[in-house]
């Protein structure tokens, strides 16, 4: 009878202990998995944000350079068209003076 109670008590303690250890191990594994997934996700999100910001900055710089180039080209063409207009007027005046006198 004493042996039976001892075996029963041993079995109950072992079941309780194994159950507690299994719960603890399961909790630790889930926490580790959660931590790893959260670290991976946050790293991916930060990396995505970093690349997105660099892409936006690069696009902004390229658009600014294109705008500056187009503005310079427009200024250059206006300057040359003004010079060409002045040259045309000068040639017309010279021709008219030569032929009128």
Explained architecture:
The chain has 101 residues and is an all-alpha fold. The chain contains 1 helix and no strands. It is rod-shaped and about 145 Å long. The chain starts with a helix and ends with a helix.
Brief account:
The protein has 1 helix and no strands.
Shape: rod-shaped
Strand runs, count = 0
Largest sheet composition:
none
Percent strand: under 5%
> Secondary-structure element order, as H and E?
H
Poorly predicted spans: none
Ends: how far apart? 147 Å
Task: Give the helix proportion (percent range).
Answer: over 70%
Radius of gyration using CA atoms only: 43 Å
Mean pLDDT: 90
Structural class: mainly alpha
Which secondary structure elements does this structure contain, and how are they paired or packed?
Elements: H1 2-100
């Amino acid at each position: 009878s004493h042996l039976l109670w001892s075996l029963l008590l041993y079995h109950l303690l072992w079941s309780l202990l194994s159950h507690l250890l299994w719960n603890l191990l399961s909790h630790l594994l889930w926490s580790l998995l959660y931590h790893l997934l959260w670290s991976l996700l946050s790293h991916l999100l930060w990396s995505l944000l970093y690349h997105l910001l660099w892409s936006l900055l690069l696009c902004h710089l390229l658009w600014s350079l294109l705008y500056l180039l187009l503005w310079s080209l427009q200024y250059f063409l206006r300057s040359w068209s003004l010079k060409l207009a002045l040259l045309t007027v000068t040639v017309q005046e010279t021709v008219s003076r030569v032929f009128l006198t």
